[in-house]
């Protein structure tokens, strides 16, 4: 090149091509950048349905059908009303004449209430039922349910069995569960759920609630057994853990799905050891709450 002569023709073509490419590459990069940043142009937008917004969207709990249908998301029991009936009342023993008076249960008359049973060491059923009921309430309220108690240890006695039914009826409850523990003979163990018999008489008419109450009872028993490791009681009925009765005012007078759960036998040493254990009661409360949840989500 020092002598001032031109390069060969092939060299001129190579140089020209290099110059053209050098000009085109930046232009292509600019065009790609413009396309990828334009509205609706990103792959992520297409995956989310192509909203067309240039600003990143906040995560939404409704972006997927499973977000609203999954029982574990949000508040799956929002709008549901549950009444929990802690069996008996710790103060009943101080009001023997009041709880002994007879009340109408539709098909018969029965005592207003009783003191309930106790373990051989003196742990009262009424204390057990309140403790478990409060644990159930905590779980259900966390899931969005409105939970009402028939008593929370805040009444001098009772309420009577007819009023217990009335509280659930007036609340238009989606489910009512009465929490108890049995007082059977030693050696008789396990959990059982009491279902309403189909009865009609006076103010009692359970014809509309027997089927949904059975569904509630079956879900309750299943979840309770899984949560606690308890076995269905063999000393009641046919050993299924489900017992049907028509002599309980709390069931006879109910117009909404309702069951009783007898969580164990307080007079049996092995069951009593569980019933008096706070960790076991926590599992029991969660089992009851899950059974109610299953029923309400059917």
Give a description of the structure.
The structure is a single chain. By secondary structure, the protein is an alpha/beta fold. The protein has a 6-stranded mixed beta sheet with strand order 4-1-5-10-6-9, with helices on both faces. The protein has a two-stranded antiparallel ribbon with strand order 2-3. Strands 7-8 form a two-stranded antiparallel sheet. The relative contact order is 0.15.
- Low-confidence runs of at least 5 consecutive residues: 1-73
Spatial order of the strands forming the largest sheet: 4-1-5-10-6-9
User: How many strands, what sense, and barrel or not for the largest sheet?
Assistant: 6 strands, mixed
Helix content class: 40-55%
Give the CA-based shape.
Answer: globular
Looking at the chains present, what oligomeric state does this protein adopt? single chain
Order of helices and strands: HHHEHEEHEHEEEEHEHEHH
Beta strand count: 10
Content of β-strand: 15-25%
Mean pLDDT: 83
Distance between the termini: 90 Å
Cα-based radius of gyration, to the nearest Å: 34 Å
Write the layout of secondary structure elements.
Blueprint lengths: L8 H29 L5 H5 L17 H5 L11 E6 L9 H5 L1 E3 L4 E3 L13 H18 L3 E4 L11 H10 L4 E8 L9 E5 L3 E2 L2 E2 L4 H19 L13 E4 L3 H4 L5 E8 L3 H7 L2 H19 L2
Parallel strand pairs: 1-4, 1-5, 5-10, 6-9
Antiparallel strand pairs: 2-3, 6-10, 7-8
